[in-house]
Structure formats: C-alpha cells, structure tokens
Description:
The protein has 135 residues and is of the alpha/beta class. Helix content is 44%, strand content 18%.
Amino acid sequence: MPIRPKIIYVEDDAADAELFERNLAKSGVSAEVLILDNATCMSYLRRIALEDQDLPDILIFDLKMPGDGGIGILRSVRELPEFDATPVVIFSGSMGPQEKAECLRIGASLCLEKPRLAKEWDQIMSSLSSFLAAR
C-alpha cells in the first residue's frame, strides 16, 4: 500500500482550511492533511523535527494571520535544518509583489493566491500534486 503524503497547512480561518481539504479530496490527491493554527504550529514542527519522525512532504502557510503570520513562520521553519528540503507554499487571499518577493527570498518554494473559482482550485491542486509527486 503506498504511503499517503503528509501536508501541514497552517491557517487561522477554519472555513478556508475546510475549503482546501474539500478541494484536495475532489482533485483526487490522496494525502494526510494536518491543519494547525499559527499559535501552535512552531511548537509542533520543532517537536517532530526533534523526534525526526512523521515529517511533512509539504508545508503550506497562510500569509496573513494574527500574530506570527506566514512570513514569520517561514523564517522560523527555515532555521530548522530538518525542513531544509521541505517545499513551503505561501497561500494568501491577497499578496503584494513585495510580500511575494520577501517570501521567495526567505525560502518559499511557491506563492499562490487563494482561489475564488473552481477552475482556479483545479490549478492550485495540480501545482500541489506536482510537488507531492516529486517527493
């Protein structure tokens, strides 16, 4: 039985997290998805890095969250060597060119706008599927 890839999605909006999971399932991508909030994600990621087990195949961070947003979390993750090779996708409902450039400079693999239409969701899921297939 093939191992299902693991996605960790850090999101402060439960509706956005549910929409992501629904569209992932609809796209046919079979993956384990763990939704974390920005307040608890770094303690969880540090713990699994120390235990060197169950590391995700891809990390997805919402850009704009209260407190430590996606850029701050990205900086912290890139300080953990266990996640050096883990693709990080920054996902946002609104992202300016400076924010996108900053994310890519820090180490994001991809920056994507949150889709509004079904066709856009298909494109997002295709991009994520490509990342997962390469792992």
